[in-house]
Write a structure and sequence with these properties.
Blueprint (H helix, E strand, L loop, with lengths): L1 H30 L4 H9 L4 H10 L6 H13 L13 H36 L4 H15 L2 H15 L17 H38 L3 H8 L4 H38 L5 H10 L3 H29 L8
Helix pairs in contact: 1-12, 2-3, 5-6, 5-8, 5-10, 5-12, 6-8, 7-8, 7-10, 8-10, 9-10, 10-11, 10-12, 11-12
């Protein structure tokens, strides 16, 4: 009962946060230079004022800003995110069509970064001060300092162009697949480069966080007590040090899971991955306000969901933590 009340309370607060973000994004987008009606008119080859006014009336751009905001919020409550000027489709359908690709990419990058980062960080902490520790720390620092777009371009150049090991662009090969397994394997091959590229930065963060947290935890009294009882170093590291040191890593991972959606904009653009990050970039160039707001709304909702899941996982990792509203 307490858990249900906790989840309900966090969900209600999350909805209020998302609505506040929607209002803020609405005003920020409309403060940006550019007129979507002028963009649409320019693409159609007609720029006279009458045609521009007709476009503004058709898409509700002639109404006062607060009226537009009220209509948009009422649509959000009804899961109606408006209509895309450029794509000529409902925004909800466009976002839902691209969302699975982004979830696949960010999910794979998140699992890769968390597993490799914690493993390498624990390995470095177990060999503190040795050459292996310095090597892991140096490599993680290099990945942390390297710009994401440069790493993405270099990975395409090396692994796709030079070595021809992996496809560099797209979600899957053009054309049908004979069965479902072939399609899964094809998508997995296309997923490797963007997922690893996106995950390397976060891997470096988890390596350094895990290493420092384990070294600090190893100095605590309960670890000294376990060592005095005659437990082996491997058991102490796995059952006592790592289990307690991973708590701040879980917190950081939950916060950065939402940030991966933002990082996916660059990654999806470079690798031509058909997700909402690339859709956001296209909507920005086309001044498609409704589509841009729809992507922001879904991204904010994903961040809120990740934070709620993080609190729940935190409780599972350490049952001593009490659930509180």
């Amino acid at each position: 009962m307490q858990t249900l009340w906790f989840l309900s309370s966090r969900l209600a607060k999350g909805i209020l946060v998302v609505l506040a973000i929607v209002v803020l994004d609405f005003f920020l987008i409309h403060l940006a230079p550019g007129d979507p009606a002028a963009v649409m008119a320019g693409e159609s080859g007609a720029t006279d004022e009458i045609f521009l006014q007709q476009l503004r009336v058709k898409f509700g751009l002639d109404k006062p800003l607060l009226t537009q905001l009220g209509l948009y919020l009422w649509g959000v409550v009804r899961l109606d995110l408006g209509y895309s000027y450029r794509q000529q489709m409902p925004v909800f359908d466009l976002v839902m069509d691209r969302l699975p690709a982004t979830l696949i990419l960010t999910g794979a990058a998140f699992v890769f970064s968390l597993v490799i980062g914690v493993a390498m960080g624990a390995w470095a902490a177990a060999n503190k001060g040795r050459p292996l520790d310095r090597l892991i720390t140096t490599v993680s620092l290099i990945f942390y300092a390297t710009p994401l777009f440069w790493m993405a371009l270099m990975s395409v150049l090396v692994f796709s162009v030079w070595l021809d090991w992996l496809p560099g662009f797209g979600f899957e090969e053009v054309g049908g697949h004979e069965n479902f397994l072939e399609r899964v394997l094809d998508v997995s091959r296309h997923l490797v480069l963007p997922a690893v590229t996106l995950g390397l930065f976060f891997t470096a963060v988890y390596v350094r966080m895990t290493r420092s947290s384990m070294i600090e935890t190893a100095r605590m009294d309960f670890v000294k007590t376990a060592r005095a009882k005659g437990l082996t170093e491997r058991v102490i590291l796995r059952r006592h040090v790592l289990r307690n040191a991973v708590l701040p890593v879980v917190t950081l991972a939950g916060l950065q899971a939402g940030q991966m959606v933002g990082g996916a904009v660059m990654t999806e653009t470079v690798f031509a991955w058909p997700g909402i990050g690339r859709l956001m970039y296209e909507a920005l160039l086309q001044r498609d306000y409704n589509l841009l707001l729809g992507v922001f709304l879904v991204s904010a909702a994903m961040v809120v969901v990740f934070n709620i899941l993080t609190d729940w996982v935190y409780r599972l990792v350490d049952p001593r933590i009490e659930v509180a509203v």
